[in-house]
Amino acid sequence: MNMIELRNVSKKYGRDFSLKDVSITFKPGKIYGLLGPNGSGKSTTLKMISGLVYPNKGEIFVDGELVNRKISRKVAYLTELDMFYDPFTVQHMIDFYATQFPDFEMEKANTLVNDLKLDRSKKIKQLSKGNRGRLKLVLALSRNAPILLLDEPFSGLDPMVRESIVKSLLSYIDFEEQTVIIATHEIDEIEPLLDEVLAIFNGNLIGIQNVETLREEKGVSVLQWFKKIMEENGVYGGEK
Ligand SMILES: Nc1ncnc2c1ncn2[C@@H]1O[C@H](COP(=O)(O)OP(=O)(O)OP(=O)(O)O)[C@@H](O)[C@H]1O
Q1: Domains in the chain with CATH codes
Q2: Distance 81 CA to ligand 1 centre (A)
Q3: Looking at the whole model, is its pTM more than 0.80?
Q4: 153 lines ligand 1 (CB under 6 A)
Q5: Which residues, by range, are in coiled-coil regions (predicted)?
């Protein structure tokens, strides 16, 4: 049920590995943080789960189904890239998404647009980077998809907005049903949301940790854990 399974997954671009023999299961009702320095394979992982990119080796299953392009029925994906059609207005984009995805909930979209203070009549090309970021959130969170993948959901958003969005994310995610993966560099901001964290570096999965255990038993924050793992793997300061 709504499970994501990677079995010995590798992805190469040319001769370079973006992901090396990764096996992991993401369980429903949990929010995962995917952490790693630039170029470590976070986006590649999410793209493969959403069927936009295929592994060279290994298999990916979503809800028991081998992933192909049709998996977008089940996977809501907020991408880092700007794939919006410029002449569209905010409202056009919302209406377009509603026609593309049967699980799109117009009521949720309306609440989100108001909460995030977006102007429906503005053209995409007139939006600031931060407002494009907000629109991306509206589009991804308005779907009642079993799988929700967020790639850098806070990029372009100012710190005050980030904080309020982390809080409001809680009211838009279905904690019982959805499997959520968030790839981000904003580790401190996202920590309150996360159940599990994964650290990847150079395409290798180098750490998996339950966040509650980390805090309660070890008394360390996710950021402290992440920095330690990076240091152990020879990455100083958290960046490559
Ligand atoms: N289309 C592509 N063609 C060639 N190489 C690619 C392509 N997409 C990704 N890569 C390479 O794969 C590796 C992993 O990239 P990926 O975008 O998954 O990293 P990331 O962890 O999301 O990084 P960031 O934090 O900078 O977004 C990088 O070395 C990148 O250069």
Answers
A1: 4-238 (3.40.50.300)
A2: 12
A3: yes
A4: no
A5: none
